[in-house]
Specification:
By secondary structure, the protein is mainly alpha-helical. The chain has nine helices and no strands. It is elongated and about 65 Å long.
């Protein structure tokens, strides 16, 4: 049986495939990723990607190969997630080893107001959603799940917004970011 005949057949086949195998693939993803919500996001993204591919006339997937294809995609997505997470940890570790700016430039003194001004100027360069996620996370202390619910977004989107914001902050405020982060966690 092919999963890409008529639109109705595709929808029915996909729905059946999703309903029957979403939970087992979430369980399979547990072999790689501990966080339940992350696993669910990964599996949902794989199914969404499969749906998008099925929507093109050139994509034909046999039902007997669908499970192997989905399994491979889930595994690869989990491994990509772990690789990215390892990269973030490595970066955080390097930041901790780096000498603070006050040791490198002892004559440069910035007031707390100046540091916040630099931060807000940098945040103003971001799209509104990115800024909002950052503020809710660091200033209001909300979790990714809480922010996702408030903004009607997925946790994965919140992670991506926060990641992009941190990339910009690292670039723009590289010498001051550890100090700013310390201030966030004390607030």
């Amino acid at each position: 049986m092919k999963l890409s005949f008529s639109k109705h057949t595709r929808e029915h086949s996909f729905k059946r495939l999703y309903e029957e195998y979403y939970a087992p693939f979430c369980l399979y993803a547990k072999r790689f990723v501990d966080d339940k919500e992350t696993r669910e996001d990964i599996v949902s993204d794989v199914f969404a990607s499969l749906w998008d591919k099925m929507d093109t006339d050139s994509f034909v997937l046999q039902s007997d190969t669908a499970l192997g294809y989905i399994k491979m995609c889930v595994k690869n997505s989990c491994l990509n997630f772990l690789k990215h997470q390892e990269h973030e940890w490595s970066y955080a570790e390097n930041i901790q080893k780096k000498a603070p700016v006050y040791e490198l430039e002892p004559d440069s003194i910035y007031t707390l107001d100046e540091l916040y001004r630099m931060l807000y100027e940098t945040l103003d360069k971001l799209p509104e959603n990115y800024r909002t996620v950052f503020m809710k996370s660091f200033f209001e202390g909300k979790t990714h799940v809480e922010i996702a619910e408030e903004m009607n977004l997925s946790v994965k989107s919140i992670n991506r917004y926060k990641q992009k914001t941190m990339e910009l902050l690292r670039e723009e405020l590289k010498d001051y970011l550890p100090l700013l982060l310390l201030l966030f966690y004390r607030a």
